[in-house]
Q: What sequence folds into this?
């Protein structure tokens, strides 16, 4: 399998954490891919019409994209404990946690694009403020999720979201408002899968 990736992407990190947790990291060839909203990567575009990372190309040439699709595929390829519960309330709880964490990332990324990529005279403060309301609401929701240290996809996604938020917004003191979530994050960050995938600029 070949994974088109960026070392700073939190969605790529989610895929790599799952690869470590499921014992498949050695099966994945990493292919660096530079992507930006305002430019086209022709190599990646041939595999993914959305031109985004992560994109996973299987041995038969099939391309999978969107981290949620890729992580569920990887979870179906191993014989160990599943990160996606098969059915019932546990499954919906795990999927809801992943959706909350990914939504936090989506809003934070939009805010970052607005303030880093958009020319300063065109920046829209109300837009940024609206995205950060979503971020703070998502943080509060994650704090209520009763996250475990033996992860499902909810914990994987939450750990990756919080790690990226710290990486890109170190000035945001979310820990003071959510000390239990901060304690959980410190513990999950010690897992080998998280330690091996810490984001880099």
A:
């Amino acid at each position: 399998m070949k994974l088109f990736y960026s070392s700073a992407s939190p969605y790529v990190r989610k895929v790599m954490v799952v690869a470590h947790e499921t014992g498949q990291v050695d099966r994945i060839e990493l292919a660096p891919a530079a992507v930006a909203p305002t430019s086209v990567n022709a190599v990646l575009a041939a595999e993914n019409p959305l031109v985004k990372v992560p994109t996973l190309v299987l041995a038969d040439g099939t391309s999978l994209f969107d981290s949620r699709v890729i992580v569920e595929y990887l979870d179906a390829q191993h014989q160990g404990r599943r990160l996606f519960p098969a059915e019932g309330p546990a499954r919906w709880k795990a999927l809801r946690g992943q959706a909350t964490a990914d939504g936090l990332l989506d809003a934070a990324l939009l805010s970052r694009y607005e303030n880093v990529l958009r020319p300063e005279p065109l920046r829209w403060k109300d837009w940024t403020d609206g995205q950060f309301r979503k971020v703070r609401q998502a943080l509060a929701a994650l704090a209520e999720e009763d996250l475990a240290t033996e992860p499902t996809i909810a914990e994987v996604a939450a750990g990756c979201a919080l790690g990226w938020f710290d990486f890109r917004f170190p000035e945001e003191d979310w820990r003071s408002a959510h000390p239990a979530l901060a304690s959980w994050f410190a513990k999950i960050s010690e897992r080998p899968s998280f330690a091996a995938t810490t984001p880099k600029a």
